[in-house]
Design brief:
It is a single chain. The protein is 42% helix and 24% strand. With 153 residues, it is of the alpha/beta class. A 4-stranded parallel β-sheet has the order 2-1-6-7, with helices on both faces. Helix 1 links the parallel strand 1 and strand 2.
Length: 153
């Protein structure tokens, strides 16, 4: 049996508090941030402080690229080592291919794992994703399972 009932996977567009971002059953899949020809992996090769410094001087504003299918798959496999089920909450599919790549990656899992993962298009961006996640995590702490969390998302 895994250590945690549910693991939560979010892309890096979700602005989580430091406490929530470091929970052991929370996994992040970084977006790529493009400042012109310069590419950064969100939270890996650029932190929030540097991002905000760069954005003040940016003209035009940076663009983002979604995580690749293999980026999601790698995180899914790591998360399944610790968690029985996974809930993937992504940036809105209206602004990014992040959700589509998350779903594509889930289709590469084993048949058993596929029954234990739910990919959710948040239909939101940034801060509102973190509010959705906070509510879902509270429900998780109250003992609700993957089915209930999926319907609440």
């Amino acid at each position: 049996m895994a250590k945690y009932r549910i693991g939560f996977i979010l892309d890096s567009s979700a602005d989580l508090s430091e406490k929530m971002d470091h929970l052991p059953n929370v996994f992040r899949v970084p977006l790529t941030i493009n400042f012109g020809a310069d590419k950064y992996i969100d939270g890996v090769t650029i932190d929030k402080t540097e991002f905000y410094q760069k954005i003040e001087k940016a003209n035009p504003y940076p663009k983002t690229s979604p995580p690749e299918v293999n980026d999601f798959l790698k995180i899914y496999l790591q998360a399944f080592e610790l968690c029985d089920a996974l809930l993937v909450l992504t940036l809105t599919s209206h602004a990014s291919l992040t959700y589509q790549n998350a779903v594509s990656a889930s289709k590469l899992l084993t048949a058993d794992q596929l029954t234990k993962i739910r990919c959710v298009d948040s239909k939101h961006i940034g801060g509102s994703i973190s509010l959705i996640f906070s509510r879902l995590y509270r429900s998780y702490e109250e003992g609700y399972g993957i089915g209930v969390l999926n319907s609440e998302a």
